């Protein structure tokens, strides 16, 4: 395809460069092989991720309960406002650092 201001020779050179890539892709596709254990590997990876999510949810629950307890201590006057805020911010940082639950896991099970 010749564009405005482009010589037919330049279009031919571009076309020739694309054919080199086409040959490379064809060669790659000819030798490409999906590992025989790909399904098992995908499922294992997903199971590991789900186990990590369970651990994160357990940890998140503990941290949320801890937030409630430090709030109680502050309300009772056992902690100063500064102590409460410092502890609260530290716990919230820990909660935020936990990886969120994957919402795509059911797609992997079906596609594997």
Please provide a written account of the structure:
The protein is mainly alpha-helical and 112 residues long. It folds into two domains: 1-32; 36-111. Helices cover 78% and strands 0% of the residues. It has four helices and no strands. It has helices at 8-31, 38-76, 81-97, 105-111. Helix 2 packs antiparallel against helix 3. It is elongated, with a radius of gyration of 29 Å. The two termini are 42 Å apart. 0% of the residues are buried.
Percent of residues in beta strands: under 5%
* Main beta-sheet annotation: none
The helix count comes to 4
Helix content: over 70%
- What is the overall silhouette? elongated
**How far is it from the N-terminal to the C-terminal residue, by CA?**
42 Å
Secondary structure tally: strands: 0
Low-pLDDT regions: none
Computed over alpha carbons, the radius of gyration is 29 Å
Going by helix content, strand content and strand pairing, the class is: mainly alpha
Name the features.
2 domains; mainly alpha; 78% helix; 112 residues; single chain; 4 helices
Provide a brief overview of the structure.
This protein has 112 residues and is mostly helical. It is built from 4 helices and no strands. The longest helix is centred in the middle third of the chain and has 39 residues, at 38-76.
Topology overview:
Blueprint lengths: L7 H24 L6 H39 L4 H17 L7 H7 L1
């Amino acid at each position: 395809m010749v564009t405005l201001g482009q010589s037919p020779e330049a279009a031919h050179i571009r076309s020739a460069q694309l054919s080199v890539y086409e040959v490379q892709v064809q060669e790659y596709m000819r030798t490409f092989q999906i590992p025989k254990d790909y399904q098992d590997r995908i499922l294992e990876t997903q199971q590991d991720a789900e186990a990590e999510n369970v651990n994160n949810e357990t940890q998140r629950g503990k941290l949320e309960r801890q937030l409630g307890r430090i709030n109680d201590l502050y309300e009772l006057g056992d902690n100063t406002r500064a102590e409460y805020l410092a502890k609260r911010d530290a716990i919230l940082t820990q909660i935020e650092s936990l990886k969120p639950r994957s919402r795509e896991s059911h797609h992997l099970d079906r596609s594997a």
